[in-house]
Design brief:
The complex is a heterodimer. Chain A is of the alpha/beta class. Chain B has a four-stranded antiparallel β-sheet, covered by helices on one side. The chains are: A alpha/beta, B alpha+beta. At the A-B interface, α12, α24 and α25 of A face α2, β1, α4 and α5 of B.
């Protein structure tokens, strides 16, 4: 624990001080060993500070590329810091690498790099200072590395830009919620933008955080001359900002780039002063790295990512076709879901393996916070670990085993938890018995140091068709828990299971539950009756101020009816594809299905449309964006047909596509994907930065007709060649295509590929030719 | 690094560059032009343009070779520069790859155009003239691997750029390069690439964009 009951003073910059001795700040770490006396001199020059920060910024195996051993530098740095006789803050900075999915460094690689440094330093220091982090995911890796190695306190400080966001887009509120949930001892900001923006960030942080706040600002914005930074903010101005920060409630002060002993001496007058305490209301949140939702308000959780009763999701999981699932996430988010439940419970797949991967893939594209829905403890732990932000766990229940397994994970990763009101005796029939389970859950949660505000009670609704009398008990339970200030959730559609006209029952039940105080309905956000029930309830319960949302929804509903009717009556499927109009394709296909055989639809509408588009493109009458829009429309048409019929046998073949290891640019691959899909091929998209092992695994699973590898840079050609060699070693029967800016037919031949294609059209023409022959 | 609000004054430059990257010509139909306009607003909203530079007064080892040497020789100073639109653009492009590949391609192309235009305008503002020429390693026979060394002079991670081992930049809408001062207003005629460029325009006062 870090005890902060008075203002604490940290030291100032090291790198800029080092430059005064004629050294380059880039060599700072090695100087711990080569010139320890210089390091000690700089440390001692900050005589007023209460902590000495070790000269170890950038010391990790991913960033440091000097000749010394990390272990030796750690030891030397700590010994140098010890010469001041003060408490020691071990400085850990970022790796300098962007973590997947944005970059190519994995979470585990970053974790291991931090863990190594912690292992070498844990015994001789007082606190870990994580500073200048610009990625929430990366700082999570560092925090876990520390917490899983030792129990030293952690100060976590991030850098923010002029929009008060980290470089990877996390705003202050999300940083505060995530770091607090992960159990750090203090949070704050350092480096980053100019003082004016720094001021905005700090004020916001102090308004919403219960933790001690650290500030270590730069001495203004530097000018860069010959690779060196020059700072010129006056000491008076710097002090005036520090004073302001202290009035906001900051408890730890210091300086970053450009500061020096003189500046730290100036602000030392505030050392040991009383901390200005602020009152604030503590709310409970769920967040991704860029979106946050308050759980005390009504939040909608989308239920559609669930293979049970959903053929599309089930098939997507069996095919490892994550694109389809990601699409489902996007659709629900666009329809207004505040949170997305992710459930992949299928006997045929390993949840432990697939769930964490899927969580990361969804988070790559969708900002909406996620609810991790699994009963597989290993899958849950991995998913919590790799989740970027603060998720919801679905779920724990009143059984001892369940609580003993899940509460420690919830505590460690700071997650919110859905708690089912059932125990070893099953689902109670009365409200009173359910409330007793709630009490048991709360009591046990406290034993595991879980903040009980993070618990959302699932009052459990069974089908009215089989347990009609329990519906009222469920509603009564919601009412009682709500009156006590607890949050509640329900899987709304359970109430209508086995009954006809389910949507109507679901809609009315939702309204009743909301009126009883339900805070997080788990629903299908695309269901019109559900949408209507939500909007109506918000009006009647006073959540829709001046009924603005209701009125606006009615206006857009009416406009949609008119525009859909117009388009619907005029546009054929062929027209829609030629015009690249994807909006109503699904409806148009469904209308066509009523009157036509599926083969007729493909042969008389889709293929002729693509022929027209292809010819116009060749003639220069259409350009690539329009070609892609048409291809996308055709792709959606094919998908809708496959939802209605089993047309697996109608697919011309399966193609695996990916961008090879080390390459993260995938525009070309994505263009090829949509064009190929539009021509009736099934595409398994492995994504970007794909290892040879993943390609081999996918080949073994799908035995595709062809494999398409893309690369943008000459430096990633070796990865491509390695993958091709590995496939050939496995006696790969698939045709191997390569493409990308750096490729040519000669290079393709040299690296062992079967074909080179210059663009997506060329690719699909080759595929069709091979297929015919 | 300076805080600088992007407002593309030279919108037509952005538009022309966008058309070039979209592989469309001036006679393309209005739907493409309209898409370029829509993309502009979207990029403006979600991007986080940052520019960083350092002034150099001596030739560093990585630049002590052709084609850089001949330009640095004539300069008393030059700059190593980096700019980015930030990671949110990459995320949006990734999202569109799932939902609307046509829009994805448009956003990708227009973002490249936006980055170039914004960088040009920033340079005009910062250096107060229109005679600065930006050159990124990888062109005219220069080695793209030089980017890896140039980044050491700039702390590009401070604006969120990572140079991968493959020399790709992440976020994808980023540049690292050099800035030279020209004696005359820039045009294809005095361009650093004028001997070997696919986009060269023969009018001596014209530029490729």
């Amino acid at each position: 624990m870090l005890h902060v009951d008075k203002i604490i003073l940290f030291d100032g910059a090291f790198g800029t001080e080092l430059e005064k001795y004629g050294f380059d700040s880039k060599d700072a770490i090695d100087i711990n060993i080569s010139h320890p006396e210089i390091v000690q001199r700089i440390h001692k020059s900050y005589k007023d500070s209460q902590y000495t920060t070790t000269n170890t910024f950038g010391l990790n195996s991913l960033k440091y590329n000097g000749n010394n051993k990390i272990k030796d530098i750690c030891k030397a740095a700590i010994n140098n810091a010890k010469t001041t006789g003060k408490k020691i803050a071990f400085d850990i900075g970022p790796t300098g690498c962007l973590l997947k999915p944005l970059g190519t460094t994995t979470f585990d690689q970053a974790y291991m790099a931090f863990k190594e440094v912690v292992e070498y330093s844990q015994n001789d220091i007082d606190v870990y200072l994580l500073e200048t982090f610009t990625d929430l995911y990366e700082i999570k890796a560092a925090i876990l590395a520390i917490k899983e190695t030792c129990d030293k306190p952690i100060i976590a400080s991030m850098s923010f830009d002029k929009k008060c966001r980290t470089l990877t887009g996390s705003p202050v509120e999300i940083v505060v919620n995530t770091l607090t949930s992960l159990g750090v001892d203090a949070i704050g900001a350092n480096c980053g933008s100019d003082m004016k923006n720094f001021d905005l960030c700090i004020k916001k942080m102090c308004d919403i955080s219960k933790l001690p706040i650290i500030v270590q600002p730069n001495r203004g914005i530097p000018q860069y001359i010959n690779g060196k930074s020059v700072y010129d903010m006056s000491i008076d101005l710097f002090e005036s900002y520090i004073k302001k920060f202290l009035e906001y409630g900051v408890s730890i002060i210091g300086g970053c780039c450009g500061t020096n002993p003189e500046i730290i001496n100036r602000i030392s007058k505030y050392k040991n002063n009383a901390i200005i305490k602020k009152d604030f209301k503590e709310n409970v949140y769920v967040n991704s790295s860029t979106k946050i939702r308050e759980l005390n308000k009504i939040t909608i959780c989308g239920e559609r990512i669930n293979p049970t009763g959903n053929k599309k999701i089930k098939n997507a999981l069996l095919d490892s076709n994550y694109s389809a699932i990601i699409n489902e996430a996007i659709i629900q988010s666009d329809a207004g879901a505040d949170i997305l439940d992710v459930n992949i419970g299928l006997g045929e797949i390993s949840e432990e393996k697939v769930l964490p991967i899927l969580i990361q893939k969804i988070q790559e594209v969708v900002d909406t916070p996620l609810q991790i829905d699994t009963s597989d403890i290993k899958a849950l732990e991995k998913s919590l670990r790799y989740y970027n932000g603060v998720p919801i766990i679905n779920s724990v229940c009143g059984k001892a085993d369940s609580m003993n397994n899940i509460f420690p994970l919830a505590y460690k990763y700071g997650a919110n938890i859905i708690a089912l009101l059932l125990d070893e005796d099953g689902i109670p029939k009365t409200c009173e018995k359910r409330l007793k389970i709630a009490d048991k859950i709360i009591k046990t949660a406290k034993e595991y140091k879980i903040d009980t505000n993070k618990i959302i009670f699932d009052c459990l609704i069974l089908s009215a068709g089989t347990s009609q009398n329990l519906v009222k008990e469920c509603l009564k339970t919601i009412q009682v828990l709500s009156s006590k200030g607890y949050k509640t959730t329900l899987g709304i559609s359970n109430v209508s299971y086995g009954l006809p006209n389910r949507k109507t029952i679901n809609g009315y039940f939702l309204s009743m539950a909301l009126a009883c105080g339900l805070t997080m309905p788990i629903i299908n956000p695309l269901d019109d009756k559900i949408k209507e029930a939500l909007l109506t309830s918000n009006v009647l319960l006073g959540h829709d101020n001046e009924c603005k949302t209701w009125i606006s929804a009615q206006n857009s509903y009416n406009n949609n009816i008119v525009s859909k009717t117009k388009k619907h009556t005029k546009q054929t499927l062929k027209d829609a594809i030629v015009n690249g109009n994807s909006q109503n394709i699904t409806e148009i296909v469904n209308k066509s299905i009523r009157d036509n055989d599926k083969l007729e639809i493909i042969n008389n509408s889709i293929i002729p449309a693509l022929d027209i588009v292809g010819k116009k493109y060749e003639q220069g009458l259409l350009f690539l964006p329009q070609l892609m829009s048409s291809a996308n429309a055709a792709k959606i048409a094919f998908e809708e047909l496959s939802n209605n019929f089993s047309i697996t046998d109608q697919y011309k073949g399966t193609i695996i596509l990916c961008t090879v290891k080390g390459d993260v640019h995938d525009i070309g691959k994505n263009i090829c994907k949509v064009i190929i899909q539009s021509h009736g091929f099934k595409v398994i998209d492995l994504g970007k930065d794909v290892s040879t092992e993943e390609i081999i695994e996918s080949y073994n699973k799908h035995k595709p007709f062809a494999i398409g590898l893309s690369a943008l840079m000459t430096s990633t050609l070796p990865s491509m060649e390695e993958s091709i060699k590995a496939l050939k070693t496995k006696s790969c029967k698939s045709k191997i295509f390569v493409g990308g800016a750096v490729l040519s037919s000669e290079i393709a031949k040299n690296i062992g590929a079967d074909y080179y294609t210059k663009d997506a059209i060329d690719f699909v023409e080759h595929l069709n030719k091979i297929r015919k022959s | 690094m300076k805080d600088w609000k992007v407002s593309l004054k030279n919108y037509s430059k952005y538009q022309q560059l966008s058309l070039k990257y979209l592989q469309c010509d001036k006679n393309t139909d209005n739907s493409i032009i309209s898409s370029i306009d829509d993309a502009y607003y979207q990029i403006d909203k979600i991007s986080n343009f940052k520019y960083i530079y350092t002034k150099m007064t001596k030739c560093i080892s990585v630049l002590n070779k052709e084609p850089y040497k001949k330009y640095i020789k004539s300069q008393s100073e030059y700059y190593i520069v980096a700019a980015t639109l930030g990671i949110q653009i990459d995320k949006e492009i990734s999202k569109l790859s799932n939902t609307d590949p046509g829009k994805m391609f448009i956003l990708d192309s227009c973002s490249s155009a936006y980055l170039e235009t914004a960088s040009d305008e920033y340079e005009n503002t910062q250096f107060n003239n229109n005679s600065m020429f930006r050159f990124c390693p990888g062109y005219q026979g220069s080695n793209i691997k030089d980017i890896y060394q140039l980044q050491n002079y700039l702390n590009v991670d401070k604006i969120g750029i990572e140079v991968m081992k493959s020399n790709l930049l992440v976020p994808s809408k980023s540049i690292i390069g050099l800035l030279f001062k020209l004696n005359n207003k820039k045009s294809c005629n005095n361009c650093i690439m004028n001997k070997n460029c696919n986009f060269k325009v023969n009018d001596k006062n014209a530029t490729c964009w």
